[in-house]
Amino acid sequence: MTDDFLTESRARSLRRLLFVVLVFAVVLVLAAVPLILGGDYVRYGVLVLGLGVCLGGLGWWSRAAVAAGAPNARRLVLVTAVLTLLFSVPLIGLFYVGLLTAITGIGLLFVTLSQERQAP
Length: 120
Prior knowledge:
The chain crosses the membrane at residues 17-36, 42-61, 73-89. It is a single chain. It is built from five helices and no strands. Helix 2 (8-38) runs antiparallel to helix 3, helix 3 (42-68) runs antiparallel to helix 4 and helix 4 packs antiparallel against helix 5 (97-113). By secondary structure, the protein is mainly α. The protein has one domain (2-113). It has helices at 2-5, 8-38, 42-68, 73-88, 97-113. The two termini are 22 Å apart.
């Protein structure tokens, strides 16, 4: 099943989407710093920092699995996609990051679960 899952075009799309997840993780970590240091939103800042670190770790791990063609790549990408969607809920208040994170999670789910079409 893994050989059918990780075709060249799908692996390229997944690597791009997982790179976007990593960029969002960096944005979250950078956004958490002023929230924590500002003093008014310390709890929310710590939450954003934790979500950014978790998202970054999962994105890095999934991207490495896809790049290596590991047998657990599909499972890791699915977990990353679902957690990206779940993590977007508390991030809705942080500009448009929550909405964009949710769209990225839906994109990951779509690319992972859709069937590869064969060219005629």
